[in-house]
Amino acid sequence: MRIPERFRPILVDAVAAAGGCLFPFSLAPFEEWPLGILSMVLLVIALDGASLRRGLLRFYLFSVGMYGVGTSWIFVSIHEHGGAGVALAGLLVVLFVAGISLVALLPAWLWLRFVRPLPLGVLAGFPVMWLAKEWMFTWLLTGFPWLFAGYGHLDTWLAGYVPIVGVMGVSFLVAAQASAIACATLGRRPVDALVAVVLGGLICIGGYVWRQVQFVPLSSRVLTVSVVQGNIDQDTKWLRSMVAPILNTYLDLSKAEWGRDLIVWPEASITVFRASAVDLLDDLDVRGKATGSTLVLGIPDRDEQGHFLNTAVAVGEGYGQYKKRRLVPFGEYVPLESWLRGLIRFFDLPMSHAIPGPADQLPMVAAGMRLSVSICYEVVYPELVRTSVTDPGLLITISNDTWFGHSIGPLQHLEMAQARALENGRYLVRGTNNGVTAIVDPLGRVVARLPQFEKGVLRGEVRQMTGTTPFVRWGSWPVLAFAALLLVVMAGLRFRGAIR
Question: What architecture does CATH give domain 222-468?
Fold first, then answer.
């Protein structure tokens, strides 16, 4: 069947959108990593020969598909916990997806307008554009570093690059493989296919080789860990009548854990402000010292001006506190507050008046080692975790993923925490209210976990680690510098050709 000429552009538009819908299936919980590469290949092919306007439309459709499927958990947060009806929650999700896809057009426009016409503008320029997009989402408008391509390759040979260039560096390599395959598909010369095979092979072989390298040696010091999952209902969690029952839940679950080196309770496991829990914290401190245990727990706090701070505290053998620095939009603060606050329940959630903690904080200490602590959403920021504490012995992240409900969100969140363990060469202990509570080894592998939506205690062992990975030393800057160098080379080739 021959498709009429006038319908062909619309069909290609649909291919771009379908490619975007495929992309999230390369990530948790699906882990079908070839689909991430295929989705990018479809995007590059859809953009081939397109005008600037049509190219932007197709990239936008790709982004709408990607975020529409990949962040579908936002609907659960708004509808089930934000008090919005199905129609309103759906509308808000549509607005979010439309808005974030619009922001993603900036690097796409720069690539289509200035880089694509250059020599190697697709083969080398597309991965540069993809890297720029992901990097932009780590900081623009406080950032939303979700759905990065590299996360789909924590169990492939490309994982060998993560301790060197981080997850964004792996995203760059994935995009390079996709652009090579697309160029080979579109090419009229046998050499195009050869370039694709050689480039893809070299990237995979390099990843396999680096996967064998132990950048941070395993320590002989083993620590026993217990992570408590309370499975507290979010809708009643902040009721005054629930303060004692929630506390008793954690105390009862922890009875047999005193004597372990480290006990972890999740984010906001104590539901009163710290000033009202002084006696409780003192009692826990005494119990921890008597049994040789450190308890790390989440508790809300206030500063001298009465501002709310999301805080983690260590008591017992350990000491110190950490005040959350990257806040969750709408969950901890409301953007455009004067317009949105109070319109619906989702814009006026409990504890949504928070302020960020200071940039420079003393590290929390437990079992004689420094801890790198992140709370909830912070663990998705590679640079924040990398620079949080100098040479920590262990990574700890506490969270309350109840907001995700029965969606793909908690497993995506866990996958990003796994990447932080691999980037930093550290064990990571993840304590959550209702899952996914887990222990991750320095290779990013989940070595123990609890079932979701159940009360329980996860017991395991971790090793104190010392030393740094290349990513900890330099972050994402080497791959960003390499991308900039590629742009210079492409521009130079264009200039040289113009002179000739």
Answer: 4-Layer Sandwich (3.60)
